[in-house]
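Long-time lurker. I teach an intro course on protein structure, and each term I like to show students one example going from raw sequence to a predicted 3D structure in token notation. This year I'd like something fresh instead of my usual example. Would anyone be willing to generate the tokens for the chain below so I can use it in lecture? Attribution to the forum is fine with me.
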Amino acid sequence: MSSLPAAGKRERTKQANRAAILEAARDVFADIGFGAATVRDIVRGTDLATGTFYNYFPDKESVFTALFDETAGQARERVRAARRGGTTLEAFVRDGFAAYFAFLLEDRRTSQLLSRNAGTIRALFDEPSLVAGVEELAEDLRAGIAAGLIPEHDVEYMAASMVGAAFEVGARMLEDDEPDPERATAFISGLFIAGLSARRT
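-- Reply from a regular --
Happy to contribute to a lecture. Here you go:
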């Protein structure tokens, strides 16, 4: 019986250590970028020993991927809820993009993390979290087509295009001194509303 509380404490310590590493890594990657960052920089932002870092992550790449997966998962959840709430083609497109751009600007550290590391993130486009985002959008497009909300289209190409364009427009938006999510939403929504409105011949 006495081993259960000890096991619970160990698990809480492990979770706290992992969270501390991820939080420190977020700051380091946001401040100096993935390329310049080292494991030592990350560990310096925690109360942990360097050896402890390697109990959780083999290298800085795995920490970055974990951070990206966590952030992408939060963004996907927000975007999908907004998209599924749309009752017209226009709302389906606009609300999803608006939710994504709002998410990018909601937290300053997330904004800095993404804007400073856009090139590194582009290399992660085959990561499960991004693949899942494309698959979820394709599923929602199929549902919209089945409901008569969206004309028939090649949903795989359309989903990949929409996710890729959202990333690039978002990255460009974050480069501005005063990012304008309304402008970004209006621009990209106009493109895809027009594209989805046209029936495929």
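Some talking points for your students: The chain has ten helices and no strands. Residues 29 and 37 are 7 Å apart (CA to CA).
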